Amino acid sequence: MRWGDSGLDAAQVAFVERVLPGSVVVTDDSWGLLDTRVLHVRSSHGDHTVKACGPDNTHFPRELLAHRSWTGELVRHGDTAPLTHADVEARVLVIDRIPGRLALGTDDETSSDLHRQAGRILRRFHDQTAITDPDHLAVETAKALRLLDAPHRIDPATVRRVRSLLRSAEPHPVTVVPTHGDWHPRNWIVHEDRLHVIDFGRFALRPAATDLTRLAVLYWERKPRLEQAFIEGYGDDPREADDWRWLQLREAVGTAVWAFAVGDPAFEAQGQRMLRAALSAF
Question: Is the pLDDT of residue 5 over 90?
Answer without folding.
Answer: no
